[in-house]
Queue: 2 jobs
Job 1
Amino acid sequence: MTSRLLHCHGAVQIALILFVLQASYVSSVRARAISGGGCIASEREALISFRECFVDSAGRFSSWRGQDCCSWKGVRCSDRTGHVVKLDLGSQDYSDAILLRHQLSSSIAGLRHLRYLDLSFNYFNFTRIPLFLGTLSNLRYLNLSQTDFLGIVPTQLGNLSRLQYLDLSIYCSNCLEVSDLSWLPRLSLLKSIELSGINFGSISDWVHKVNVLPNLEILSLSNCGLNSTISTLSHSNLTNLEMLDLSYNHGLTGELPVWIGNLTNLSYLDLSYNMLVGSIPSGIEKMTIGNMTSLIYLDLSQNNLVGSVPVEVGNMRSLDILDLSQNMLVGDVPDGIGTLSNLTYLSLGLNNFSGVLSKEHFVNLVKLEYLDLSQNSLKIYFDEHWVPPFRLTGVYLRSCDMGPQFPSWLRWQTGTFTLDISNTSIYDVLPHWFWVAFSNTYILDLSINQLSGALPEKLELPFIEVMDLSRNYLSGQLPANLTAPNLGNLLLHNNRFTGTIPGYVCDGFGEINLSNNQLTGDFSECSATGRPLIMVDLKNNNFSGEFPRFLQNATELSFLDLSHNKFSGSVPTWVAEKMPRLEVLILRSNMFHGHLPKLLTGLVGLHYLDVAHNNLSGSVPSSLARLRAMRFSKGGDAHNYSSDSISTFVKDRELNYTHELTKKIVLIDLSSNVFTGYIPTELCFLKGLRSLNLSKNQLSGPIPGNIGALRGLESLDLSYNYFNGEIPSSVSDLNFLSCLNLSYNDLSGRIPSGQQLQTINGRYMYIGNSRLCGPPLLDNCTTNYTDQNFNQEHESEMHAISSCYPSLCTGFILGLWAVFCTMLFKKTWRTAYFRIVDVFYDKVYAQVAISKVVFMKKFLR
Ligand SMILES: *[C@@H]1O[C@H](CO)[C@@H](O)[C@H](O)[C@H]1NC(C)=O
Ligand SMILES: *[C@@H]1O[C@H](CO)[C@@H](O)[C@H](O)[C@H]1NC(C)=O
Ligand SMILES: *[C@@H]1O[C@H](CO)[C@@H](O)[C@H](O)[C@H]1NC(C)=O
Ligand SMILES: *[C@@H]1O[C@H](CO)[C@@H](O)[C@H](O)[C@H]1NC(C)=O
Ligand SMILES: *[C@@H]1O[C@H](CO)[C@@H](O)[C@H](O)[C@H]1NC(C)=O
Ligand SMILES: *[C@@H]1O[C@H](CO)[C@@H](O)[C@H](O)[C@H]1NC(C)=O
Ligand SMILES: *[C@@H]1O[C@H](CO)[C@@H](O)[C@H](O)[C@H]1NC(C)=O
Ligand SMILES: *[C@@H]1O[C@H](CO)[C@@H](O)[C@H](O)[C@H]1NC(C)=O
Ligand SMILES: *[C@@H]1O[C@H](CO)[C@@H](O)[C@H](O)[C@H]1NC(C)=O
Ligand SMILES: *[C@@H]1O[C@H](CO)[C@@H](O)[C@H](O)[C@H]1NC(C)=O
Ligand SMILES: *[C@@H]1O[C@H](CO)[C@@H](O)[C@H](O)[C@H]1NC(C)=O
């Protein structure tokens, strides 16, 4: 029993074991009580004064009454000597924590015979670990894990020369610190040491301190900030290791030592989230990973491992959890995986594995619950009638090749929480059984396939939080009746849905994206009850009617795109009042008319305003200058990645910009309306502006002389208006300008020169202004140039240049894709995925964490 205790980690196990212990000790206490036994008075006093230090709202000390302290809950005395040998006030969570009220009394230092002290999961009011613990020289077991002690771990712990079990691990990184480890080798009997979460700061010789502990079975130094090389860890004294956890140090380097295969007692190996290099020890070496036949838990994810997975992996028959994700592993997935009949968790995602996975790889995996093969170059092929032996809760197969038929084996996966088969080359009808099999799912991602067919008229998905069917060929009407009370993100964009909008759509929360379909009708019947809708994208459908009124209840909305529809009427004055958090407003290509509401300027976060291609009239409100978010550059990286991307952005904006990019860009586009009057000079206060497009209106008067104050401007389009006068010389101050179009106005005089202008200058930018002169025009201002022929000659060529279109800025386009793509793909798929599911991050994470807990249970059994 004692030796088992030394291995005790899982809170559940602690509880179980304690329960057993308690049951047995209660009976022994009873026996002593009958024989007149009691506790030693001085020890009782020590316990009482210890108790007095705490607030105990959960009644942990409620049994601490009467003389016989040996019968108090959590206290145990030696049957032989009567001394208190065990004090167990540990817990499994914080729900019944005791809370330190004053300075911790050194009274328990009086419990000289104490062998076992557990104070885990309690609150010590951010005090330091008391030095007097170092005087409890009989301690075998010390557990202060998940407490809130702060500061330096005292070196006095080195006096506990009999200690076999030491657990100081904490969730809070950087709360505890070790500044000196010279005490560690003095604890030569240590079997288990867990210091996870403690900052090791500048200690680089931890390896040597650990190497000399000859009895070590458990070593857990996760999230300690270790950045040395693992290769110096020595096998000679660590032959008994059962558990090695060096995960989340982020800086641990070096190759996996070859001797790792010699650790034949090892059950648990977690080196994830480090910078390990090299390959996984395999056949060439005498002892390979395949000799670690007692390994239950193997996690090498998030490192820089290369090479292939050794075929010997098939020998590790005890494996329960295998996570090799996020490395640079290549080659086939060994068939041997299929023999690991105890495997519940298999994650190979985000590597460069290739080849075909067939049922042979899975035929014995009867316990498999979590499967992640995403983002490799794998093809998964099972024959049509194969019934898998497993039922998965998490299925992540993004970017595997599973098509062209819809994978029929999924039919049997009826207990799935998350299904991600995005971009899996499926070219088929979405079968009706799918909605039955996955009716209890939380997250469904079928995006980027070629799925066709219609959705059922009635759908009940009681748990669904994210439904992503985007970028497919789905058609027909949206389900008339969708029961999905938890639905956050409804992503149906880029399909071929037709028909009108069912009422539930408007009452969503999170993100609603119906863009690029053929939906019709208006939103007059649609109402929202005020759930926190963040993003609504209805772009490029055939919606009609007035500006949707249900948005009056969308008080949290930050993104709204109604572009490329047939909405009409005026832009309501309530926009700012009812959607005060709006940052991006896109009404482009509709039939809105009337004035732009002045109140728009109440939107303190609005940095992206695109109302182009409507029939809006009146003057450009000078109050736009009050849009606070446009007065400063967005983000620190404003011009780092952007100069190029804005060009793409302007180009792609029409239909397929990314929502991400709109977040970064400060833009006003009022083009192709019937605005009249002058450009308000106040507009030049919007110093964050990066793109200003006023083209194709009926604006007149001069270009404001202070336009050069818009220092961040990258794109300026004033073409097709009636602007007159000279081009202000301050235009040459626009150092980031990559697109300029002043064509078809009534400008005159000499074109200003300047470095950036020189770079981008082309005659097209000025065409249609008969009285302009100077480079790049042929006229050098020495003659009065009145030749209208110039325009006519070039009219056809120039007509294509209707607005500031980046084909005019070709120089930038090549570069920009590189930047743009890096930006998109630099993030890992996990982060990317989490970004999509955003608010549900915790749930997904918890799922992984739970798998680990489940494992711990087994491991510690
Ligand atoms: C925690 O310690 C602070 C002093 O550091 C003290 O003011 C406070 O009362 C303590 N809280 C409790 C609950 O004892
Ligand atoms: C490890 O971290 C310490 C403290 O941050 C630093 O002094 C040392 O140079 C780092 N070593 C390596 C190999 O990065
Ligand atoms: C193994 O432990 C012994 C005794 O603690 C020590 O002398 C020896 O140096 C250790 N071996 C290594 C490789 O550190
Ligand atoms: C590993 O085990 C093999 C075979 O038992 C032995 O030959 C080898 O010396 C061991 N390696 C180390 C580093 O102990
Ligand atoms: C290691 O595994 C290989 C087979 O993979 C086996 O031949 C060899 O005997 C094993 N060595 C030990 C020491 O178990
Ligand atoms: C598989 O797990 C079961 C139960 O957890 C255990 O009894 C059995 O020994 C394991 N099999 C192997 C090969 O480790
Ligand atoms: C949708 O289905 C639910 C459950 O079957 C039913 O209670 C509800 O009346 C239906 N709603 C509509 C609009 O048909
Ligand atoms: C706004 O929500 C309330 C109830 O929360 C509802 O009565 C009202 O009709 C909603 N208004 C719109 C325009 O959807
Ligand atoms: C935009 O659409 C075009 C064609 O429709 C496509 O080739 C391009 O990759 C898309 N761009 C983005 C950023 O999705
Ligand atoms: C200006 O252009 C005219 C005709 O194109 C030319 O004769 C004259 O030399 C030029 N003047 C200068 C200063 O380049
Ligand atoms: C251009 O014409 C104006 C009158 O139209 C005249 O005043 C000016 O001197 C002329 N400039 C040149 C350079 O011929």
Note: Residues 211-212, 214, 234, 236-237 surround 2-acetamido-2-deoxy-beta-D-glucopyranose (ligand 3) (CB under 6 Å).
Job 2
Amino acid sequence: MTQSCVPGSKMPAVPSRILLGPGPSNVSPRVLQAMMQPMIGYLDPDFMLIMDEVRELLKAVFETDDANTLAISGTGSAGMEAGLSSLLEPGDTVVMCIYGFFCERMVEMATRIGANVVPIRAQWGRPFPEEKLEAELRNRTDVKLVTAIHAETSTGVRQPMSELARIAKDHDALFMVDTVTSLGGNRVEFDEWDADYAYSATQKCLGCPPGLSPVAMSRRAIEAMRSRKQAPSSWYLDLALLGNYWGWEEQRVYHHTAPVSMILALRQGLRDALTEGLTNRFQRHTLNAKALAAGLEALGLECVVPEDHRLAQITVVSIPDGVDDIPVRQRLLRGYGIEIGGGLGELAGNVWRVGLMGESSKAEYVLALLSALENVLPKEGYEVARGSGVAAASAQFGAAIPQGD
Ligand SMILES: *Cc1c(COP(=O)(O)O)cnc(C)c1O
């Protein structure tokens, strides 16, 4: 019997993929190289300087002067759980705007914390109607926190934030926003929204491996956290303790061993994002998504979200009648090294989710995917006009990219 884990076995090398799913996305050689720097102690003064730089870089991408930032050891869900468990005590009321799979994850977490959870549910695949939040808050005086998601990766909708944040503020509630898929791909205007807590993840539009959850927290939220009656039940995700380690206070206090190499990766990913320029980066995401949508539509496929509300970094497309989800994705992966995502929750089996996030948002990947689909879809019983998808996308690039003449 062959054992794949013994030295010298035939275990294959990790294949090189084009990652066009909902994350992780591709990572640049610069970021990978940043992780190969020497190991350093988590309280070394030089490491403190690196952490300070990461905090400043995060403030730039969150577009905040006033908030405090850090990166939690863990993925986006850790940022979600840290916010909920640090801001909510058992019995506190939290009103949650619900319009997708990840919104429901927040409900689950807040319920486990013992909060009084008030979910307001609205249709998946459309922006959440702000009036619903206003109507709920009008009748309440007890709301500690309101939550929403900027980029619902399960539906592909870009949720306008300023109005939801304003309504929360008008009713004296804290406002928490999930920017897991938006940070680095869309403007996240933490100060402009007057948000209190935002969290993200390194593996979506920031171009880093999975493993850290960057967060921003307002002074108001820090005050609320400090005036809790009892400490949060989660010690590891207690943002007050994490803030003490990251230098939110004068005195730094050891909390846990920082994932040094990931913090070096994040620093490089953030430096690269700011070197590219946030506006250029958002425009790149927008153009590639537009070309992808044009190509998919030329193949007769339908985007689920109306154009005005679509996210550039994740395109949700209906699976045509008679075509099976999984065989198509397997052919793309095995034959072309391309990963795309399937549907989550009520959309499972009905949609594909194509991510063009961070390093994965590239014209050549858009063209490679469309060309692969033109070969794969007919094998799964769906005829397409060969070349039409690539041509439609290419026309978008041709119109947008200077030709050098
Ligand atoms: C991916 C995602 C999460 C979960 O993040 P993990 O890094 O997988 O823990 C949460 N919210 C949104 C909107 C996401 O897209």
Note: The longest strand covers residues 143-149.
